[in-house]
Amino acid sequence: MTFYKLGIKGDLVYALDSQDITKPTPIQELSIPVVLSGKDLIAEAQTGTGKTLAFLLPMFQMIDAGNSNIQGLVITPTRELALQITEVAKKLSETKEVNILTAYGGQDVNAQLHKLKGNIQLVIGTPGRLLDHIRRGSIDFDFLKILVVDEADQMFHIGFKKDIKDIMKQLPKDRQTLCYSATISHTVDSFSKNFLIDPTYVIAPKNQITLDNIAQFVVETSNRKKYEDFLKIIHQNKPSKAIVFARSRMGAHTLYEEMLKSGFSVESLHGALTQAKREFVMNAFRNNEIDFLVATDVAARGIDVDGISHIFNYNLPDDPENYVHRIGRTGRAGNGGVAYTMLTEKDAKRLEEIETFINLKIDRIRLALPIEKKLTEKSATKTQKGKTITPSSKKATHSKNSKTSKKGFKKRNVKKILN
Asked: What pTM was computed for the model?
């Protein structure tokens, strides 16, 4: 299959060729003909499957460059995703001139207002800032042809359901609506019934792109040894570029400070940062100026950076789907990737839910004692209650006790990795 056969015209195919993109992905093959036919669409596709081009290519083809009105709107849950989609759109606009506005919180409103006075044909933005412009009367969607709601499941999960409904009320009823989501949850399905007209459903192959090229490991540890074991895994693997996931803003910032003290080239990405700082961090990470990015799930959703060799789950996510989104940042474009999860007893239930969700029992790793500590134990003798305990008897006692797993862990064989 080629983009020509899907109905994409020569100028846009040329833009793809200049980026060495010659073969459509499954979600592009499924989506593009439906969008070009003018039908509403619900597409189930995971991050990293090529869904951005699946909606941008037909949007660009349908936008009339001679019409100065806003004809296309893409709504995204995060600023990072809005910026990422804008980057892809700008590459297409090199061969078909479409004027683009990216609207998101933390950016200078006056600058956006000034740009809106020009000829804007495509708007890419987050719900809060789009509503702000609508209420100001600074944006006009009367001539809108096509709307895309991207990452719909995440959009509703983080509380934008009401904002999306308020935006939809301000849009023309005869528009075409496309909804892209990693999963079709009850909320997404309810949204489609209320705002889409007789939509076509398409489902991209799951997990084949996201997980097949990724080696996954669980490192069993304790709260006390967690950071120490995390450092060991890093030193053993020597990642070229990695994302480390934490569960909260505070957790991400604390881990970032610890890694900085340990001498790593690292930055953090979370919702408490200013937009200028967030853009600085992402540019540094893309340009290989830093090796590690410590991030939260919401901040990292939609990140598409080349060359990520490793993903580290310092904390497990609450939602199993977010595990797939996390590790899907590596192992892309046919390259291999590695994902490590630091597991303490309190997260055993979360891991069980993740393994059920991905239908895979992830290999366990328990780090060996440092060599110097082993030598110390081997040469030491201790006296307890009048008895001399030799290293061999101590080892035997430990082996006996190890038959019973700690709470939250199942009995299993584990791999040993020496320092």
From this structure: 0.63
